[in-house]
């Protein structure tokens, strides 16, 4: 934006005498008439300009006291002149600068003030054309939410922010709006939800690409509740095929989805005349230490292997409120990472507890799987590691 103003002159002319006495003047030394510009004041918005016109009785120079106050010329000759004053386009508070004109061989000084109005960043988020201050997700209609950002600066979504919630999937490409406006879709990460039923809130952060120290955040939350298993909510499992368990005790199905099931059913096809022994043991390790040693030990309370009366069915039961596999743990804490449920011929199992039992199952203290000859009688349950 450019405007033009004309700086008025003093009403009275100033007469300068070249010698000590008027009588001594020659034709070349006749008085110079100085029509000095009057003091002026202008106000500019960031990015706008205004022309200043003035008459100078001699050569002149111009300077500004602030870098944001930019002049189209810093010097000129006597006569009618015009310079353009521009306020640099930047986000800043209101400020003032002084433009100084120095005119003629006598260095007469004239100043005028330039005021710059403030310019602040503008940022808003909307969903379905309605402004929002929070994004809410669920596993139904709002499993995905399309977000529109309107700003007056080039922004980018910070997908590496420490406040990014683990239950919210990160876009493959960082959303950004170079011209200030942009839309993108965020989706709940259903596969990760098992670790975040109770961690419902978080925030996502946007930053100015030209100044990453300037950020804007918006809260996000989900409304997904932890599944409550029913009395007959049982997962059908097969011998020799692994199962997977969340850290709060729910089985995954064959497609990798978290279920509401805490019971896995196994059916044994016994050989005639063979006695069977049912045992369940666990593996503990410190997942935060590479190459950490692991130990095998019996399981008490939170996980059981039981035979259904009057049948050849066995159930792996995960108790509710299972402290040994839930909650926060440190990187050096030994925690259960596997469960081995075994129903094998009694002749291959030595006892029900102690080192001899473990040796008969694993063959050595460092083994991570049951002995090959017991594989068809066993189910390995892998337990998710704690969320980082």
Q: How does this structure look, described?
A:
The chain is an all-beta fold. The chain has three domains: 2-116, Immunoglobulin-like (Sandwich), CATH 2.60.40; 123-222, Immunoglobulins (Immunoglobulin-like), CATH 2.60.40; 234-383, no CATH class. It contains one helix and 29 strands. The protein has one helix at 354-362, and strands at residues 2-6, 14-16, 32-34, 41-44, 49-56, 60-64, 69-71, 75-76, 79-87, 95-103, 108-116, 123-127, 130-132, 134-137, 144-151, 155-158, 176-177, 181-187, 201-208, 211-222, 234-236, 243-245, 263-267, 276-285, 295-298, 303-307, 313-318, 335-345, 378-383. The strands form seven sheets. The chain has a five-stranded mixed β-sheet, with no helix packed on it. A five-stranded mixed β-sheet has the order 14-20-19-16-17, with no helix packed on it. A five-stranded mixed β-sheet has the order 22-29-28-24-25, with no helix packed on it. The longest helix has 9 residues, at 354-362. Mean pLDDT is 82; it is low at 4-27.
Features:
single chain; 388 residues; mainly beta; Immunoglobulin-like; 3 domains; 5-stranded mixed sheet; 43% strand; rod-shaped
Lay out the secondary structure.
Blueprint (H helix, E strand, L loop, with lengths): L1 E5 L7 E3 L15 E3 L6 E4 L4 E8 L3 E5 L4 E3 L3 E2 L2 E9 L7 E9 L4 E9 L6 E5 L2 E3 L1 E4 L6 E8 L3 E4 L17 E2 L3 E7 L13 E8 L2 E12 L11 E3 L6 E3 L17 E5 L8 E10 L9 E4 L4 E5 L5 E6 L16 E11 L8 H9 L15 E6 L5
Parallel strand pairs: 1-5, 4-11, 14-20, 21-23, 22-29
Antiparallel strand pairs: 2-3, 5-9, 6-8, 6-10, 7-9, 10-11, 12-13, 12-15, 15-18, 16-17, 16-19, 19-20, 23-27, 24-25, 24-28, 26-27, 28-29
């Amino acid at each position: 934006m450019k405007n033009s103003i004309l700086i008025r002159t003093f009403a009275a002319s100033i007469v300068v005498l070249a010698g000590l006495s008027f009588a001594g003047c020659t034709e070349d030394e006749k008085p110079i008439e100085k029509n000095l510009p009057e003091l002026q004041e202008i106000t500019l918005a960031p990015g706008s300009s205004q022309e200043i016109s003035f008459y100078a009785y001699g050569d002149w120079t111009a300077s500004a006291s602030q870098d944001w106050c930019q002049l189209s010329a810093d010097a000129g000759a006597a006569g009618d002149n015009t310079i353009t004053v521009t306020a640099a386009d930047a986000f800043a508070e209101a400020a003032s600068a002084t433009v100084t004109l120095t005119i003629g061989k006598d260095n007469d000084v004239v100043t005028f003030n330039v005021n710059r109005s403030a310019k602040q960043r503008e940022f808003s988020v909307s969903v379905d054309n309605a402004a929002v201050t929070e994004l809410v997700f669920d596993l139904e209609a709002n499993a995905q939410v399309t977000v529109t950002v309107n700003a007056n600066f080039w922004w980018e979504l910070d997908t590496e922010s420490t406040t990014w919630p683990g239950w919210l999937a990160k876009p493959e490409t960082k959303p950004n709006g170079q011209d200030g406006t942009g839309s993108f879709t965020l989706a709940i990460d259903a596969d990760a939800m098992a670790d975040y039923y109770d961690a419902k809130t978080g925030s996502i952060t946007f930053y100015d690409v030209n100044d990453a120290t300037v950020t804007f955040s918006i809260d996000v939350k989900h409304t997904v509740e932890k599944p409550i298993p029913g009395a007959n909510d049982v997962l059908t499992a097969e011998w020799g095929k692994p199962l997977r368990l969340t850290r709060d005790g729910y089985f995954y199905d064959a497609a990798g989805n978290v279920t509401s099931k805490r019971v896995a059913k196994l059916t044994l096809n016994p050989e005639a005349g063979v006695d069977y022994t049912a045992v369940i043991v666990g593996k503990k390790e410190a997942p935060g230490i590479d190459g950490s040693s692991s130990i095998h030990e019996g399981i008490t309370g939170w996980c059981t292997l039981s035979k259904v009366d009057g049948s050849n069915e066995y159930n792996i039961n995960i108790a509710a409120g299972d402290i040994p596999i839930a909650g926060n743990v440190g990187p050096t804490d030994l925690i259960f990472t596997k469960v081995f449920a075994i129903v094998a011929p009694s002749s291959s199992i030595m006892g029900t507890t102690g080192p001899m039992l473990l040796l008969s199952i694993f063959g050595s203290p460092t083994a991570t799987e049951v002995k090959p000859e017991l594989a068809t009688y066993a189910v390995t349950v892998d337990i998710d590691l704690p969320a980082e």
